[in-house]
Amino acid sequence: MHKSHSAMAAILAATLFGAGAVSAYAQEPTLRSLAEERGRYVGAILNSQWFGGGLPGDYEKIHKTQFNVVVAENEMKFDATEPQEGRFNYGNGDKMVKYAKANGMRVRGHALAWHSQVPNWVNNYKNDKKKLLAVLKNHIEKVVGHWKGQVDEWDVVNEAVSNNEPMWRSYSVWYQGIGPEFIDSAFVWAHAVDPDAELCYNDYNLEQGISPKAKAGFVLEQVKRWVANGIPITCVGSQTHVEDTTTDKHFIGSPDSLRAFARELAKLGVKLNITELDIGFKSGINVSSADLARQGRNYREYMDVFLEEPNMGTFLIWGVSDKWSWLGGLNRQKGLIYDDNLRPKPAFDSLMASLKEHPVESVVSPYKQSFIPDTTKQDTTANDSTAKDTTVKDTTTKDTTDAIMPSVARLPASLHVAGSVLHLTGMASARVDLFDMQGRPVFSAKCENGTVELKGLASGRYVVRVEQNGMVDVKNVILK
Ligand code: G3I
Hints:
Oligomer: single chain
Number of helices: 14
CATH architecture of the largest domain: Alpha-Beta Barrel
Bound molecules: ligand G3I
């Protein structure tokens, strides 16, 4: 599964994580060198004004030495890349990609479909679904196409879930104008342009539990459905903007919750990345050295989880120094790992300690080896969710300008694989299509007598789509 991503991961691993690979900048261990030895990425955002001498002091040297993955704070967002309809501006994003490549760093792209930082002209089409679909599709095609092969991983959809009760965020222009199918569509469109890029769903408050009422629980249900339906998602990004409320007990969110989420996603073959971490204090309070020590412990707990879960690949902090941080806008302060004078804080030391205390051989790199648990003993976890699902997506839609639309009815029959034969109980004749986990068609046949011989397919996990008289069923199967 994830064949093209595995190939890409192997190349990345060879480039970045080759035997004994240590950053050229590292004289002594750094976050970067320790992460690279473990096949992982540790990073911090870039802002186009910050490098090339844009910030005083050792900022750039620190950034290159300590980090091996970057994300643009604002420069790849919709309003930055397509400020006027059809007129694209890649200048600042290009600068960052150039910087990242010159310094051997992985690049995350942020973000394609988001309700915020959308230019005003998009709202002109809020009542025109067909036009809005065309706008989003064109944007994704142009932007992903521009950085094809350079951006390794995209936040395809950002913050689409509402905060209070888990449901879709209703005030997004994309949701209002298109409906929830903008999400499935965005993944399919991005994948069509750059099949080797990893594609993430990214959101905040995902460290607050995985019960069905929590945001992560809702996201998990969606990921199950996407995977079952062949929507090409490979990762979830947990932004992890958390607040230290001055006592450990009231710490909002928990690394353990994130661990539980990672484990559920691993069952689906999906990575969990920490994409925007900061652990801030309320603005206005006096932050003591004890507070900073506790902040360090909290940072460390997230790093421990990150290193111990085999499907976690990237640990990204939303800033470097407390001096240049967006956190003030959230009424928080001092959430990063370097202080105002670019001196490492206890949080930095804690991250280093965690990396050193997780021996190289104990850390699985999802870029070097499979993290996917052996599910061959049961059918799949995804089947449970598809049984409840009423919005099965048709990934075979030919006109991709149209949304990936829900199918209306489900087949009452069941299917299973024995050897290389697909058995369809209760269906004399049906059309059978198989897709790989990225949604690419790999096999098609008409079933005449309740069985189909699956010829010429490598072993692995596939999505089977069965259609009879306009009704559709979709399930995962594993071919041995
Ligand atoms: O681009 C305009 C510029 O033309 C204008 O002169 C200037 C005057 O204030 O504003 C500029 O826009 C600002 C933009 O950052 C670029 O600097 C916006 O006002 C400001 O609101 C915007 O803030 C960004 C925020 O996202 C917007 O939602 C922060 O820098 C950025 O750190 C923050 O990042 C988000 C992630 O994308 C998603 N997750 C949450 C995270 C924190 O909110």
